[in-house]
Amino acid sequence: MAILGSMTQFDEQPLPFLMDEALTAAPVTGKQPSYIADHRQRLRARFMAGGATAVPEYELLELVLFRAIPRRDVKPLAHALMARFGDFNRVLTASEARLRDVKGVGDAVITELKIVEAAAHRMARSKVMQRHILSSWDALLDYCHTTMAHRETEQFRVLFLDRKNVLIGDEEQAKGTVDHVPVYPREVAKRALELNASAIILVHNHPSGDPTPSQADIEMTNRVNAACTALDLTLHDHLIIGKSQELSFRAEGYL
How many CB atoms lie within 10 A of CB 39? Predict the structure, then answer.
């Protein structure tokens, strides 16, 4: 928690277009106005008593923003971020450039949001790494959705498994545009051999939210499968991650 705590030294620019007179009159430095302190105390207490389910998403976002902006009312900024990106997850995963488009967002806010995003990824990853992946399938899907579902561009990842189907590697192989990512089957197979993997699972996201495979997705999967077969590697599946659901090539009969 030392990293999070250190962020309180930063302060963001005021939000004059969002704040009422009492708020804009508050000093940039000095003691926090009592009504802000009381609101923060009540919100923290409600969260600690009931957990995440006890607060709506914008208030969960407020709790994150408290550390970045220690002396101002962050409720207007939380609402502005939710209005721009739609939900808590999309706020966390938004690019730095898009976050800066929101009035009142600066370095401290971006750092806090990205710390929370990284922590979520680490926690989800810890539930699948060095685990028997075929018996931890739900955890794997959770991990894939956490890391990829809200990305604005396509990302292609390969999960490498050993002979016991334990996940030994998880690597990003390529990034692309909103509807295309370049994949090189030989490189995928080569990397599997380098890691002494016996099987792989392909994963990529569709920023559109629809996990239906394109003809290019199907052809690429067939090429990777052919390269794996030639090297006695098993392609267990290819998962396409959408916004709220995923598609399995194996389950849908494409493999």
Answer: 16
Give the whole-angstrom CA distance, residue 20 versus residue 23.
Answer: 5
List, in sequence order, the alpha helices (H) in 94-170: 96-100, 107-126, 137-148
pLDDT for the residue 153: 85
Q: How far apart are CA 233 and CA 195, in angstroms?
A: 12
Q: Which two tokens stand for residue 43?
A: 């919100």
Local structure of residue 85 (DSSP, 8 states): H
CA–CA gap between residue 62 and residue 155 (Å, rounded)? 30
The residue-averaged pLDDT of 24-40 equals 64
Write down the pTM of the prediction. 0.67
The DSSP bridge partners found for residue 235 are 200
Four-residue CA torsion sign, 110, 139, 190, 155: negative
Residue type, 21: E
pLDDT over 60 (residue 141): yes
- Looking up tokens 């302190």 gives 37
Please state the domain extents for the chain: 2-122, 127-248
Residue 158 Ramachandran class (φ > 0 left, ψ -120 to 50 alpha, else beta)? beta
Report the distance separating Cα 110 and Cα 121, nearest Å: 16
| Cβ 145 vs Cβ 108: under 8 Å | no
- Looking at domain 127-248, its CATH architecture is 3-Layer(aba) Sandwich (3.40)
Q: Which of 208, 193, 197 is nearest to 247 (CA)?
A: 208
- Helices vs strands, H then E, count in the chain: 11, 5
**What is the C-alpha to C-alpha distance for residues 34 and 30, in angstroms, rounded to an integer?**
12
Per-residue model confidence (pLDDT) at position 16? 40
